[in-house]
Amino acid sequence: MNETSGQNNASNSPLEGLQTAPEIAALLRIHPVTLLRWAREGRIPHRRLGSRKIVFIPAEIADWLRSGAKLYTVSAVRAASTKESEAA
Q: Where in the numbering of this chain does the Helix-turn-helix domain appear (predicted)?
């Protein structure tokens, strides 16, 4: 076994891409507390490491953003549709 193959195995670790709430929150330009609330509510993809540690996989966050499916809460969607119907 050579050193190069050992380094490749380490760089392919599934734990390598994990990021914390402050790191992802900075990318999304939201407060980390908001991000953690969304995670607890199941609105954003995340992983739990133990009972209190929440981490995020950037590729899953990117897919979530691209999907746009769960970016807004039901109340926000309802409020937007109410404003549109009032304007009409």
A: 20-67
Burial 37-75 (b: 16+ CB within 10 A, else e): ebbeeeebbbeeeeeeebbbbeeebeebeeeeeeeeeee
Tokens at residue 67, please? 């999907």
* Strand (E) or helix (H) holding 49: strand 47-49
Query: Tens of pLDDT along the chain (88 residues)?
Result: 444 444 444 455 556 789 999 999 999 999 999 999 999 999 999 999 988 899 999 999 999 998 886 555 555 445 555 555 555 5
Q: Which residue has the tokens 């009409």?
A: 88
